[in-house]
Amino acid sequence: MSSAPDAAGPEAAPATRYPGASSFGPGANNAHVTRLGQMLVERGARRFYADGPGPRWSDADRRATQAFQQAQGWRGTDADGLPGPATWELLVTGKGRDIPAAAAGAPARRPPRTGCPAIRAAPCSARARTTTTSPGWAGSW
Question: How far from chain centre, in Å, is Cα 1?
């Protein structure tokens, strides 16, 4: 997490003050994660959450935060998906750009993995020839 665009001023009110980096990321489970997710949903991140934001940090929180950071024009470590003081400040004040809607035709969420790629024991074509129920079928996918 870079500090370049994430430098909050000392004038931040206690109710909106950045809770600190330790409140976010893998293993975090607290009300700040819930609040972050709720603010992100208000700014266009609903599509990242299957069940809505909650207190336990998840990949949905990281992806939603990163989308918000990228909407601000931030790149690289400034858009790492972990909220810093500037990300938090924009969210609590309602400033900055909202997360743009998903592109037309793009899935709202990543689809679940199905089919051959989920089974890694043998290549798809080899499994297809050995698991078919049609006698004499020897095609591949």
Answer: 15
CA-to-CA separations, 46 to 6, 63, 92, 109, in angstroms, rounded: 24, 11, 17, 10
Question: Quick one: which H or E segment has residue 127?
Answer: helix 124-131
Residue 66 banded pLDDT, cuts 50, 70, 90: very high
pLDDT attached to residue 124: 44
Q: 3-state secondary structure string, 105-126?
A: CCCCCCCCCCCHHHCCCCCHHH
What is the average per-residue pLDDT within 92-109?
Answer: 79
Task: Report whether 44 contacts 99 (CB < 8 A).
Answer: yes
Against a cut of 0.70, is the pTM above it?
no
Query: By the 8 A CB rule, do 27 and 57 touch?
Result: yes
Sequence letter at residue 2: S
